[in-house]
Amino acid sequence: MTASTISTKGTALITGASSGIGAVYADRLAKRGYDLILVARNAERLNALASRLTAATGRSVSTIVADLNDKAALAKIENVLREDSRITVLVNNAGVGSVTSVLNDNVDEMEAMIGLNITALTRLTYAVAPVFAGKGAGTIINISSAVGIAVELLNGVYSASKSYVLSFGHTLQRDLADKGVRIQTVLPAATATEFWDVAGYAQQKEAASTMTAEDLVDSALAGLDQGELVTIPTLQDGDDWTRWEAARRALTPKFANANPAPRYLLPTERV
Q1: What superfamily does domain 3-239 belong to in CATH?
Q2: Which residue among the candidates 25, 34, 126, 158 is catalytic per the annotation?
Q3: Rounded distance, CA 161 to CA 143, Å?
Q4: Domain-by-domain residue ranges, the chain?
Q5: 158 catalytic, yes or no?
Q6: Which of 36, 105, 144, 170 is the Cys-Cys partner for 61 at CB 3.0 to 4.6 Å?
Q7: Are 56 and 230 in contact (CB under 8 A)?
Q8: Is the separation of the CB atoms in 99 and 201 below 8 Å?
Q9: Among the listed ranges 116-120, 171-175, 188-192, which one has the minimum average pLDDT value?
Q10: Cα–Cα distance between 107 and 59 in angstroms, integer?
């Protein structure tokens, strides 16, 4: 049976798709009936994955070799998202991390991290969001991290970049939910992928608390099926997130004051 004779749910474009979490998303979404556009830097891995998935699922799988920190390459993917009407899902998975402190890291490498983790994700989302809104349908899955909340655990720029993804997701939900566009922000904790080799802490892959990429993606897709806006696969009690998020939102109206809080008044001004 060829891909053209199999019912399709549209096409999912996945960044960082050649290995790890991105490759598992490719496998799972193909098995769910999506055609794929896989984006990554490693052509050999991309082509091998595409061949395997086509043989296993019958889906149409195309590849684009691109470094999303290259402006021309990023613009090419943006154009694909704007112009290919078959695309119904964007998985913003591409990212890089670090475990070292500000005293030991190279600032140029940190700037590149911001470019990939924040700028590329933002530009790709901005490219596809109007298309999905115009159709009244579409799904954007942004991969954040648990360190977007537990910000002290790893490198500060990495944590901050993932906090951005979480905050960005909240505003996307605000802007796009009534347009029929689904936004899911996924917060993996430690996951057994090559991320740790690049970040400089390969031993984390073997830790008892580290989740497999397969379990991570399967949990994230289960969360998507359940309508979750934010999915944290390792968090055992979902009510912990609900309470934390409710407390955060409850602060918002308390910021609207023209006068400083009493604790900031000079001693002579206090009553």
Answers
A1: NAD(P)-binding Rossmann-like Domain (3.40.50.720)
A2: 158
A3: 11
A4: 3-239
A5: yes
A6: 36
A7: no
A8: yes
A9: 188-192
A10: 42
